[in-house]
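Ligand-bound model needed. pyridoxal-5'-phosphate.
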Amino acid sequence: MASSAELHQRRSAAVARGVSSMIPSYVSTAGGGTMTDVDGREWIDFAAGIAVTNVGNAAPRVVEAVQAQVERFTHTCFMIAPYEQYVAVCEELAALTPGDFDKRSALFSSGAEAVENAVKIARHATGRPAVVVFDHAYHGRTNLTMALTAKVMPYKQGFGPFAGEIYRVAMSYPLRDGRSGAAAAAYAIGQIEKTVGAVNVAAVLIEPIQGEGGFVVPAEGFLPAIAAWSRAAGAVFIADEIQTGFCRTGEWFASTHEGIEPDLITTAKGIAGGLPLAAVTGRAEIMDSVHPGGLGGTYGGNPIACAAALATIETMRELDLAAAARHIESVARPRLEALAAKHPAIGEVRGRGAMLALEVVIPGEDTAAGPAPDAVLTAAVAKAAHELGLLLLTCGTYGNVIRLLPPLIISDDELDRGLSLLEQAFASSL
Ligand SMILES: *Cc1c(COP(=O)(O)O)cnc(C)c1O
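Prediction:
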C-alpha cells in the first residue's frame, strides 16, 4: 500500500487545492470508534466523517444490505422505474420524524440539495419569495445554500453573486447574547417583521442546534417561539436536522428536545451509514403542493443508498443509538466540565447527546458580544490532538469551538482514550 507521504504527493498534482483535508494521513480501514491509516497508525474517531457514520464505519448490517442490493441492481432512476427501497425509506422518515400528521418525503443525494429543495417546496406552497435564516447558520455550499450559510471564509469568499430574497436575523446564542429564549425570539421576530414583512416569508429555516456555526444550542423557548410565529405568519417552518438528526443528540431528531414539530425537516449525514442520501420530509399538503416532475434528480434516492439507510435505521433501533448518544454525554460531559474548571480558556461546555462542544476564549477579555474568541488556541489544540492520534474537528463563526462527534457505537474504552487525548492536547497547547 502506498504511504500517506506518497499519496500526498500524488494528490497535490491531481486534486484541486480548494478541496482540503484536516489531517495528512490517508485512511486504510475504519470501524467502531477508530480509524487506521495506510501507515498503520490507529486514530480515535471523534469526527464520524462529520456526524455521518453514527452507526459506525462499515457497520455490519449496512455492509450486508449494500452488498445484497448492489448485486440486484445499482440504479434505474426513481423517476424512470421506481423501486421499493425508496418507498420504504420515505415510510421510515414519516414514522421517525416529529409530528403525528400525514407526511410525504422526497429523496436527494446531499444535504445542500435537500435544503435547496425544501426552499423550493416552501416557495411553491406559499407563493412567497423570502427565506429567513439565522446568524452562524450553515446550510451547504451550492449557490442557494451559500446564500443561506452565514460564514464567508471559507464557504463563500469569491463565489458570489448569491441568490436573493434571503434574510438573516439574530440567533439565540446564550454565551454571547445574554438573552432568554423568549427575549431572543422576540428580537429575531422583530427583525423579520420590520425588515422582511411577515406576509413575504415563504420559510423560516433553522438548525435546532447549529453545526458548523459552533454547536450553538439556542436558549430554551427560542425554537418553539420561532416555530409558532412562523406558523401564525403562514410561513413554512423548516428544521435543518442534517447534522443533528438520526440519534446524534440523544433523540431521533433534535426538534424533539423542545417539542417542536417542523413543517419540513431536512436530513442527510447520519441517514445512511456513509452512503450519499438526503431527504425532505414534511406535511403532506406542503410537500404535495408541487406538481409531478417538479422535484427529483438522477441519483436522488439511489437504491444502494436507500438499502444502506434502511439498514442504518434498523441498527439504530436495535442498538438504541439514541440512548447510546445520551450515554456518551453522561461520560463525556463531566470530563469536559472538569477540563473547563481547570482551563479558564474554556468559556463554555455545551451540546446535547453525542454532539458536544467546548468554546475557547481569551480569559478576562470581553467584547460587546461576550468573551473574546481564541481561534489560535483552538487550532493549536486540534493540531495537538491530531498529532496524538485523535480525529477532532473545530467549528464556529469565530473558529474557536472544538466539537465532539464520535460514532454512537464508540466503546467506553475508546471514548475514554479519546477524552484523555483531548485533555493532553489542551494541556500541551496552553
Ligand atoms: C453538512 C450540512 C449541510 C450540507 O450537507 P452536504 O451533504 O454537505 O451538502 C446542510 N446543513 C447542515 C446543518 C449541515 O450540517
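The chain has two domains: 4-58+320-429, 62-319.
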